[in-house]
Structures are given as C-alpha cells and as structure tokens.
Amino acid sequence: MDQIANFNLFGELADLPDVVHCETIEVRSALHDWELTPHRHGRLHQFLMLHRGHARGRFDDVEVDLSDNTVVNVPTGCVHSYSFEPGTQGWVVTVASEVLDEWLAEGEGLRPVLSRPAQVPGNMDIRDTITTIFDEFETRDFGRAHVLRARIALLAGLVARAIADQAPAAASPDTTLQRRFEALVEAHFVEHLGVADYAGQLAVTPTHLSRVMRAATGRPASGVIQDRVIREARRNLAYSNLSVSEVAYALGYQDPSHFSRVFSRATGLSPRAFRQQIEARTGG
Q1: Within 13 Å, how many C-alpha atoms sit on residue 258's CB side?
Q2: Dihedral sign of CA atoms 25, 284, 38, 186 in order
Q3: What is the largest CA-CA distance in the chain?
Q4: What is the Cβ-side half-sphere exposure of residue 49, based on CA atoms within 13 angstroms?
Q5: 133 and 92 in contact (C-beta within 8 Å)?
Q6: Which of 81, 122, 76 is closest to 100 using CA atoms?
Q7: C-alpha atoms less than 13 angstroms from C-alpha of 123 in its C-beta half-sphere
Q8: How many CA atoms lie within 13 Å of 198's alpha carbon, on the beta-carbon side?
Q9: Which of 3-7, 64-68, 118-122, 210-214 has the lowest mean pLDDT?
Q10: 8 A C-beta contact, residue 51 and residue 90
C-alpha cells in the first residue's frame, strides 16, 4: 500500500450509520482469513474484548499478545492490525468519536486515559456491559439510541477504570486547556507552529501552556507538539511505502535531511533504520 489505510470500519469506507456498530470478532475476521491488515479509523473509537482464543495485535509500533478476556482500547487514529487464531471469539464495539466525546466530562480524567491504545484484563462488568450493548443494538425499541449512548458511556468508564487501575500514572489530569491545545495540535501539527503560536490562539502565555501540559502529561507543550509529529512519522514509516523524503514532505518538512535529524534525535534511530527494524521484526 502507498499510504496507511484509513477505514471507518474493518476494511470499509462508509460512514458509521448508527450510534454504535456491534460485530463479533469471528464474523468479520473469518472473511479475511483471520488477518486484519494495518489500518486506522479517522473518526471512530473501538473497544474490543477477546472472549476466547488468541491473537497477535499491533498498535502503532507496539506488538502484544491477546488472550482470553483481554480488553483492547483503540483510540481514533491509532494504526492497528490483528492476526487472530482461527475460531477466536469476542466482540468489537465501534463508536463515533463525537458520540464518545459527549460523555467524557471535563475534569474526570477519562479523556487522556482513553486517548492511548491499551490492553487490560477484562472483567464481568465489562463483559456484561458489552453484551447488553449488543442486545440493545439488535432491537428497534423506543429510546434505543438513548439507551445505547448510556451503555457506551458506562463501557468507556469501566475500560478507563481498568486501564487506570493497571497503570495509575495514565490517569493524568484533564483540563479544558489541555483538551483545546491537543485538538489544535491534531489539526495543525504538519504546519510546525510553535508554542507561542498555539498559546496565542488559546489566549494564554506560552509559559502557562507548558506548565499545564507538563502537569497533565509530563511533557512541556513543545514536547507534545514534537511527539505528535514523530508519532505520525513512525506510523507512515511502519505502515506505508512512502519514501523517507515523501514522509518528510507529507509532515510539512521542506528539507528531508532536517526531518531525518529531528526523527533521529527523538527516537535514537534514523528513519531508514527505524523502517528496517520494523521490516525485520515483521518479516516485511
């Protein structure tokens, strides 16, 4: 492939037509010989629970083993793929990002926890919530959309709790300023705006913006900006056939050699060495 596949559902380009989409692992995966190639969802968030079986999953450039009762959080934009053992059973709940955002209240800390891919042991509360979502999804009863939204909110809370319980540091403070800044970075990271540019748009000082981001993420505002660029670079190097120069240009660099220096400082590897490492690990 020339670029990373950007799907709304597994291998599909159509918009999500409902409040939520529910599908079992086995129904979709069997159509693709139990292999789902690297892709990402531009406007969707997914929760996957592997009930019984085994899979090898890849989330951005991290590989993990998924076994019985594993729950996976796949945020919007995360490049992911699966290699399922034939016969693996489980559920996938796909939610429009806009729907999920309605329930991520400011100050509760769920947003930063759910914004990163994670795999955690499941529990009966999560499993029961998923199965009730599936049950409601199949109905056309009065109040269906409202009930589905409420159950999605419950699922998001339970998954975020499981992630925070496993890694308490993930539950970093959530603030309105942090959310607005991260949204601006997401929209403009290829423009290489500076901290002062973002601070001006947010009507705060650069010092205050960096202080808030350091408290919330452990990184200054400049580090958050660079991390977003490097994350996209890693995704393109790992999952596309774009040349290093083409990746540089796609990320807004006028000079590919400058991009290579920035990438090397951030990762400890040149872009070519990073790609070779990925290919050696995956047999590509």
Answers
A1: 7
A2: positive
A3: 60
A4: 23
A5: no
A6: 76
A7: 11
A8: 29
A9: 3-7
A10: yes
Tokens encoding 48 = 């996957």
Q: Which residues pair with 50 in a beta bridge?
A: 70, 90
Confidence of residue 173 (pLDDT cuts 50, 70, 90): very low
- 205: tokens are 């000082």
Which residues in the chain belong to E strands, given as ranges?
5-6, 20-24, 35-40, 44-52, 55-59, 62-66, 70-74, 80-84, 89-96, 118-121
Q: Is the pLDDT of residue 53 over 70?
A: yes
pTM of the shown model: 0.68
pLDDT band at 11 (very low <50, low <70, confident <90, very high): very low
Q: Are 94 and 16 in contact (CB under 8 A)?
A: yes
Distance, CA of 263 to CA of 213 (rounded, Å): 22
User: Residue with structure tokens 């909110």?
Assistant: 153
Digit-coded pLDDT (tens) for 55-111: 999 998 789 999 999 999 998 888 899 999 999 999 999 998 767 776 776 556 787
Structure token pair of residue 151 = 């159950």
Instruction: Output the CA torsion sign for 140, 42, 281, 265.
Output: negative
Mode of pairing for the β-strands spanning 80-84 and 55-59? antiparallel
